[in-house]
Amino acid sequence: MLDRVITGGSIVDGTGSPRRLGDVSIRDGKIVAVGEPGTAEPARETIDATGLIVAPGFVDPHTHYDAQLLWDPTASPSAAHGVTSVIGGNCGFTLAPLRPNDADYTRRMMARVEGMPLAALEAGSSWQWESFGEYLDGLEGRIGVNAGFLVGHCALRRYVMGDDAVQREATDDEISKMAALLRDSLAAGGLGLSTSRSSSHSDGDGNPVASRLASVDEVLALCRVVGEFEGTTLEAITEGCTRRFQPDEIELLATMSATADRPLNWNVLIVSAHDEALAFHQLSPSQRAREVGGRVMALTMPVHAQMNMSFETFCALWLIPGWEPIMRLP
User: Fold this and answer.
1) What is the pLDDT of residue 282?
2) Residues of the chain with pLDDT under 50
3) How many H helices and E strands in the chain?
4) Which of 13, 224, 263, 284 is deepest in the core (most CB within 10 A)?
5) Do 232 and 226 meet the contact criterion of CB atoms below 8 Å apart?
6) So what's the pLDDT on residue 236?
7) What pLDDT is stored for residue 201 in this prediction?
8) Could you check whether the bond before residue 77 is cis, i.e. omega within 30 degrees of 0?
9) Range 297-305, long-range pairs (CB < 8 A, 24+ positions)
10) Cis upstream peptide for 303 (omega within 30°)
């Protein structure tokens, strides 16, 4: 006997096939059959989904729940919108690997680049991990969503280079140490590498975040490490992601993917009737990647993005010349 069966709903299974009416059979916490209406075995519980959509949980590939999950296991409000799997560690920002004396720097950076309340970051966790694996262990069995995390380039640089991470390019020896650290982090469960080269990303002191100082050689060295691990991926943000890609950015994204032999995604593809040609241009990295043996995918949203402005958190006002001193006032 089944534990439960969901009947009467319109099934949208995520494969791209048309929606259809059917029964979803569940036993021991797993879906064991998806069949025609009325064909399911007897069940202890029947859920009538007439007039509703029955679908797998959504996967959100671009989140910054790295800190929030430490005190909010529901990943609110995503779970309320049907999201059951989240990917964190995007844009080069992760909370690990982390040296003990860098916790304050990391909190202030995350408050700046992602608008996270500094007070919540300070009070929401003990910040007692160091390695990427230790950070993941702190979440194991304590959260209500499936969660995976990319390894942030900024964290790798800070761990290896300290304050110099936001001042200069890395030496060959430092790149080797970052590669080894990334290798350990991926072996511990990291899903891949994320990086940023966007001027919109500055740390709590107003300096460019560490990954923006990385040479192309450094980035590609880390991509090669990602290629050593099956099932991994890349995520990158460049200046042109929200503006217009320049030729060197197109080449970089394509080369990163080809070097790692892994897919790469970037955020966010803006589609607007005001500039129809822009969207097609922004897909150029995907075309170039196919030519060199890579795969680049653009993320977009099915709704118009709304910008929330607040004097209490980081927002676009910080990016307007002359506004930063004002925004720093109490």
Assistant:
1) 97
2) none
3) 10, 13
4) 284
5) yes
6) 98
7) 93
8) yes
9) 297/263, 297/264, 297/265, 297/266, 298/265, 298/266, 298/267, 298/268, 298/269, 299/61, 299/62, 299/265, 299/266, 299/267, 299/268, 299/269, 300/268, 300/269, 300/270, 300/271, 301/268, 305/268
10) no
